[in-house]
Amino acid sequence: MSKYVMALDQGTTSSRAIIFDDTGGIVAAAQNTFRQIYPRPAWVEHDPYDILASEFASMRDALQKSGLRGSDISAIGITNQRETTLVWDRETGMPVYNAIVWQCRRTADMCDTLKAAGLEEKVREKTGLLIDAYFSGTKIKWILDNVSGARERAEAGLLSFGTVESWLIWKLTGGRAHISDYSNASRTMLFNINTLEWDGELCDMLSVPMSMLPKAVPNSMEYGVVASGIDGLGQLAGVPVCGAAGDQQAALLGQGCISKGEAKNTYGTGCFTLMNTGADVPKSSSGLLTTVAWQIGGKTTYALEGSVFNAGSTIQWLRDGLGIISTARECDTLAESVPDNGGVYLVPAFTGLGAPYWDMYARGTITGLTRGSTRAHICRAALEGIAYQVKDLLDAMERDGVELSVLKVDGGASVSDVMLQFQSDVLRKPIDRPRIVETTALGAAFLAGLAAGVWSGTDDLARLRECERIFLPQMGSAEAISCCDGWRRAVGCAAGWTKH
Ligand code: ADP
User: Fold this and answer.
1) Distance CA 233, CA 250 (A)
2) Atom 23 in ligand 1: residue holding the nearest Cα
3) Nearest to 141 by CA among 168, 166, 170, 111
4) 223 DSSP assignment
5) CATH number at residue 55
6) Distance, CA 393 to ligand 1 centroid (Å)?
7) pTM, to two decimals
8) From the CA of 310, how far away is ligand 1's center (Å)?
9) 370-426: pLDDT as tens digits
10) Alpha-carbon gap, residue 204 to 281, rounded angstroms
11) Taking burial as the number of CB atoms within 10 A of a residue's CB, which of 10, 31, 209, 466 is the most buried?
């Protein structure tokens, strides 16, 4: 039995392949970027063949770099950009249109119509989602409504829909498996997360024929094997494809958040926060999403999901907009040079505020300036502003019924010790930063390796993920409460700014 697993991480701007050994170590990795297509403002597309070519090239490159043979790979797992929508001809395998990318806003009006028709509660009840152009459902409808002949062909059962993992698996298995895993299916606005079935009423609402839909399947099981005759992938023919999850869910797993109350936050340009809620399907009172995290061994795990619009982008703004630092690292150094924020708060509401505030009219604010304030205080306030937003999101998750036990972190800004210490101070919880930050790919590898018998259970995952550092609260709780009070008042100043 070989001990290597290949994870495909098909993202929005690049396709990667990473080969892990059975200790979770990275043996080889390869990455290829591909074209972003912007046909109109706020429209984003990918060529489905660019997705395939870049991913297949990464698979080939990673295998070559590893020095392994294809037969050494015991399983392939997939994680992917979520919600991106493809429709192809079942017979020829040819897409009828480009992939419409999750970021694309072309169906925003369609969503407004659905909301005006009072469908929000029904959608939320069944899918855990808000009605939004991000999700696949309205994108499928757009393709059927706008591509000549597509609706007739779909109604005749000739077309297939899939998100990116579905497209990759269809192509890798030579058209044998048309499936979507539960985590990806739960981002379509067509999938009932309570029953784990496609929902006829929601399909009717969006005029999507159910015959187009992939079979919804668990996240860790054999979906099929790599077909022979795929250009450049001959060595991998016969290797089972046996795990898939959307990128955020895969990261939750790769961070080892396998128990209820464990959460992960990715500190990137913005933040993505997911909390494992176990078998509970909480209904958020703060506009958070409820989603399927995964189903492993017949056990379904759910998650609450929220995002912060501006996080690392605040540091970019200090560098490129305000010009008070020349590198992101300098922000940390300056922040560490002062004992506290000196009463300065920075609310980075550059594009409004998302969950749990939901204020599109809010704008960025710096409050509490005095003649004693320096750029070091502003840098500190910027890092603290990121941590406060994450705290507010996690507080909202706790109000939805699940107590946070630990926050595991990744993403570019998670290198900042001063920010993570402050995060722990205001959250009053441990913050755990792993040694390997390839958590998304590790999650996909784990799903596949579990089905292939490389690992025996979720307990093994704890051993694969190595902790680099734990941050524990150091600040006194009275001081933390007073800091949070200042933040609340600062958010009050930012709120509703452009609304007259
Ligand atoms: P994304 O995937 O969203 O592009 P990354 O995970 O690559 O983001 O993280 C990049 C972000 O991390 C940038 O916005 C940058 O400002 C921030 N960042 C990088 N280094 C630091 C640092 N030392 N301290 C704070 N923020 C940082």
Assistant:
1) 25
2) 329
3) 111
4) -
5) 3.30.420.40
6) 19
7) 0.92
8) 11
9) 999 999 999 999 999 999 999 999 999 999 989 999 999 998 899 999 999 999 999
10) 24
11) 10
